[in-house]
Amino acid sequence: MFRRRPPLPPFPPGGVLVGGAARDWLRGVAAKDFDWMVPDPAGAARGLAGALGGTAFELDAARGYWRVSAAGGVQHDLVPRPADVEEDLRRRDFTVNALGVLPGGRVLDVVGGQADLRARRLRMVSRENLRADPLRAWRAARFELTLGFRLEPLTEAAVREVASDLAGGRLPLPAWERVRDEVHALLRSMHAARGVGRLEELGLLALTVPELREGRGVTQGGFHHLDVFAHGVEALHQLIGRFPDAGLPLRWAALLHDVGKPRTLARDEPTGRASFHGHDKAGAAITAQVLTRLKLPGEDVRHASALVGAHMVPLPASEREARRFVHRRRALLPDLLAVMLADREAARGPMSSEASRRAYARGIERVLAALEEQPSAPPPLLRGEEIMALLGVPPGPRVGEATRALAEATALGEVTTPDEARAFLRAWNAPN
């Protein structure tokens, strides 16, 4: 049963509410993004902005698109009303999105969308509509996950056909930015891991992150009970269960943390035991390639790939080592700990035990305690000019080495004053 329907915003003159907002209103879900078809977008936008206390501005002069930004992050997009509204609805992707709402709550339903809403069924308006914009295949997976609906069999077959034709070059691939937005909407869900699995079932993961699929069937043993692919998906599940507010770079890092394993796989001939030396560094490079292809912001690419590259660092066994851990990886914390914990909790192979898990948790606790004790790096005790004068060296790599060594000693509490810093650097610079 759907919830009680929320109040509708004021209708612009001659306006029809369409798309996701119409669907969600019928489901009893309050929308934040409203799509309107109106005879006069400019006038309607100004009137709506006045009624809502928002701001109206032109989005696309050539096509007559306007937008109103209102309080609470609510957004209204207004486009010219077509001569035949029902025909426009018939060109939509799924029946539950081919609904219109008129003033007073009267519903335009030309393809049976309300019945599909009640049945929680995701059904295409037509096969031709799906193929007209192949991005709708990704949208099908996303809607299944975020709406809690299920693809009806003919629609699922059509989605699989689109994926096959995209892979075979018989349909053009959508722009990566559009694919990214659909995948990100899926990854933001609490059920993102299931969504990744659904992309794989529908043939869409091979078009999105083929590198991830290289781990299918790559068995690991030891601490692991799943193959490399399933382990990455489980790590994403573990991450979201423990850190539901995790951002997208962190979610990507959890999913891709072992993406380098298939390309670094070596097996010992007598025993068949697998090893993956250097998979963390290989995975960091692959992660950067994947996320760059998907057009993520550069900072997000760098952060996610750095997390993947660092996820194998040993946890500290003492308070002093915890302070060193924090100093060397401060820029990645606490996200790095979240990836490491998700990795560990996703691994339940024959070598895993309650004792090993408790030991791992203690290592994480040491790092968190050190981070709480020193949430930011201590200020430098000596300036670069002082270091050069003290060591008698010109600007160059040696100054950088000395600066880093002194910064670490300061973070560890080994030096606390400028005089101690000078003594430390003299000893550090002395010939062996």
From TrEMBL:
HD domain residues: 228-348
Keywords of this entry: Magnesium, Metal-binding, Nucleotide-binding, Nucleotidyltransferase, RNA-binding, Transferase, tRNA processing, tRNA-binding
Protein name, as recorded: HD domain-containing protein
Domain of life, source organism: Bacteria
Transmembrane segments: none
InterPro entries (UniProt xref): HD/PDEase_dom, HD_domain, HDIG_dom, NT_sf, PolA_pol_head_dom, PolyA_RNA-bd, tRNA_CCA-adding_enzyme
Protein family membership: Belongs to the tRNA nucleotidyltransferase/poly(A) polymerase family.
GO molecular function: metal ion binding; nucleotide binding; nucleotidyltransferase activity; tRNA binding
Cofactor section: Mg(2+)
Biological process, per Gene Ontology: tRNA processing
Pfam families reported in the protein's UniProt record: HD, PolyA_pol, PolyA_pol_RNAbd
SMART domains in UniProt: HDc (SM00471)
